[in-house]
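Example 3.2
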Amino acid sequence: MTDPRRLIPRTDAVLADLRLAEALARLGRGRVKAAVGDAQRRVRQGVITPAQVVESALDELTGSGPRRVVNATGVLLHTNLGRAPLSRTAIEAVRAAAGTTDVELDLATGRRGRRGRAAMAALARAVPGAGDVHVVNNNAAALVLAATALAQGREIVVSRGELVEIGDGFRLPDLIVSTGARLREVGTTNRTSVADYAEAIGPDTGFVLKVHPSNYRIEGFAATPDVGELAGLGVPLVADAGSGLLRPDPALPDEPDAATWLAAGADLVTASGDKLLGGPQCGLLLGSAGLIDRLRRHPLARALRVDKLTLAALEATIEGPPPPTTLALHAEPVELLARARTLAVRLADKGLAAEAVASVARVGGGGAPCVELPSAAVALDESLAAVLRLGEPPVLGRVERGRLLLDLRAVAPSDDQVLFDAVVAVCG
């Protein structure tokens, strides 16, 4: 009897199979050829048959690179899902910037220009109160640059109640100390006064740091000075707004924004671009022209700079239509419930036990921890959570009280059909 392993198709014949055409165009010949080789080895091991080589290679290649996920968790800025999804305008800007661009060239003079000047100009226009702006690769980098350039070997005065820890065990005090600056802690966990700051300021003070505790809130017998009260202490005031609002948003009245803090007297404000701004991951620095110039010219700024794709996406986010995060934040609960009812009826027509229910969504991403956003969801059996997560595309919901809720606040209306097809596919 002929050994079936002798029937293994040649590599060139497999690569010519039309089913691999899309993978070849997307991933390149080398990556696809390696997957084919792995599939051929599995035939020799007797794991699969020769007829399954193409399918086996395709299965391996499907998981290559980041996969699109439908975020039905009800968390707008889900850190594990990449936080803010980019707008179509920003995505097109990234595609255009992927080629050769004038990122650091003045076309009018033919000479070197300021890197990302269009994005910087857009950011400056969005916050006119800033004397100048700069962008680094995330908000932690913004604080590292400020601490290194303004307080290396000196003291940074900060309230004990603002020495925060964020996700994955990342602690702000550890970050600051790593720059060579020293922390001068003042006040207590729950109460700090202006006098506490003033008494701590001396010849060794680099700046006063005000941190917005964006992922928790202290209530009860608690007090802390606002930015306006800390301005004018004779040293620079650096304020970490964190969540990325450039201007006030009526949906989040207690969330700080860069424009308001600068108007209140902050010399430098830092924030994240991939949170409530709804743009790419980056760290925003807005403040006095003198301080921004010192930061931009510091040697560390080179190591923290962003690439042309980030600059393009940032400019498009600021100048373009409202990004998905903004649209999700301001979605009307009545409209969300109508969408949930439509989806539930369509799924019921397919024989599934589906129900439209009211739910509560959250901002996420370390922002607005106590804000609850009225929302709506499609409730399914909780046993579907795992199979939907492993579907194509993966769908992530949340399990509450024995039901899987597919919350629609973070799902764009244009993706309702994608969500419906994904549920029907796995249940079928």
